[in-house]
Amino acid sequence: VTEPLWRAFSRSGQAVPLRPCDDGPVLARDAAVVVDRAGTEHEVTRPVVALCTCGKSQRLPWCDSTHKVVRPR
Amino acid sequence: MRLPRPRGPLAERVLGVLHGEQDPGGLRDLPLPPASSSVLDDADFQLTLWVLYELHYRGFDEIDDHEWDPDVIAARGQLEVRFEAELRRRTADEVRRVLEVDEDLMHRIQRLVSTIEGPNVAGFLQREATVDQVRGFLARRSLYHLKESDPHSFVLARIDGRAKTALAELQYDEYGAGRPERLHARLYAEALRASGLDDGYGAYVEQTPATTLAVNNLMSLFGLHRRLRGAALGHLAAFESTSSLPCRRIAAGIERVGLPEATAAYFHEHVEADAVHEQVAVRDVCGGLLESDPGLLPDVLFGVAACLLLDVVDGADLMGEWTDEPSALEERTAS
After folding, report:
1. Where are the strands (E) in chain B, listed by range?
2. What's the CA gap between B313 and B56, in Å, rounded?
3. Does residue A61 have a cis bond before it (omega within 30 degrees)?
4. Tell me: the pLDDT tens digits for A58-73?
5. Three-state DSSP string of B292-314
């Protein structure tokens, strides 16, 4: 089992579940912060965020739909 | 906003009544275009319908309240019957083909997106458009973006459960997630102002081509009829699914022609926002709706196909304009 790319936490520090979207991003609802593997924290300003899983986003950790170009259906 | 000038006999009749200069009885039997002609690129038809829909949004300075006037509603109904019939006729084959394949909604939508594909407007803006063409594009889009997401808000009261919660969440983000300065319509107004364009609501309606009016009218048609709630949410899913990548290209085009960062910022915001909204709109909004009401699947797919069809029609009109003489909108907005 590989370590996940991102972990997400609520304002109270609870881990927020990441919901996969087939071959797209993972969704995090009600997160306050997203932490990458290096431990860098990214503040969340949306009610739900899409996190990149293809690794090619130009706005990491956020999905920018690049996966559609990298792995078209 | 003031009532626009008419563009033909239909609008003359309707605007005459709204201005209080003509007998409302004239609205009961409108001079509709011949049955054989398309209304999607009929400027007189689409402007008239746009005016009638606008009574349900911000209204017009000259009139107090015609929103529920029976004659006005009857006029709107006559136009809607024509508009919806043409949309259904022109999307029927694609919708039927997608219904024949047993697969999940996301794949059905992707199938429609790849079949009903128009000219690459975003690619042109990214690589080739002049600064005046980009400004004309921004003005053309302003009719919708200055009331961004409003048509789909009408649907909230018509649905329930998971779909309602998800739509409210999506709209909350569109409406700034608690911060008025992040309202998407406000970001668009700032984008217009930064590029020296008029940010007044409806400011460019008189120069807006028929097909762009049709794009706007489609959302109002779906939003204002409970019967069409499935189509409204299918439309939302298609809109969000085809927004993120083009927004990145448009932002790059805005930067290439040297328009200010505040203008590009609106599109940068939508790269990220719409990558999320696509997933929420398809999985939770449409998925939730179909979970409780599976019979709405054909309507959801009709909404998807109609959104894509009008994108193709409007995109073709725009590309045609760019290869011809400057349009009225471009002339008005030229730097």
Report:
1. none
2. 26
3. yes
4. 999 999 999 988 865 5
5. HCHHHHHHHHHHHHHHHHHHHHH
pTM of the predicted model as reported, rounded to 2 decimal places: 0.94
pLDDT tens across B289-298, in order? Answer: 999 999 999 9
Beta bridge partners of A4: none
Contact A63, A57 (CB under 8 A): yes
Q: How far apart are the C-alpha atoms of B18 and B51, rounded to whole Å?
A: 10
Chain B residues touching residue A59 (CB < 8 angstroms): 271-272
Q: Which of B110, B169, B248 sits opposite A48 (nearest CB)?
A: B169
* Lowest model confidence (mean pLDDT) among B117-121, B142-146, B150-154, B329-333: B329-333
CB contact under 8 Å between A22 and B245, yes or no, is: no
Optimal mutation site among B276, B277, B286, interface A, most CBs of chain A within 10 A: B276
Comparing CA positions, the residue from B20, B87, B100, B9 lying closest to residue B48 is B9
* Distance in angstroms (rounded) separating the CA atoms of residues B324 and B248: 26
Angle at B142 between CA B140 and CA B144, to 5 degrees: 105
Interface of B with A in 99-138 (CB under 8 A): 106-107, 110
Instruction: Say yes or no for a CB contact (<8 Å) between B279 and A47.
Output: no
d(CA B108, CA B239): 14
Q: Do the beta carbons of residue B239 and residue B284 sit within 8 Å? A: no
- Residue B258, number of CB atoms within 10 A of its CB: 8
Which of B169, B275, B280 lies at the smallest CB-CB distance from A65? B275
Residue B156: exposed, middle, or buried by beta-carbon count in 10 A (0-12, 13-18, 19+)?
A: middle
CB atoms within 10 A of CB A36: 15
Tell me the chain B residues in contact with residue A21 when contact means C-beta distances shorter than 8 Å. Answer: 279, 283
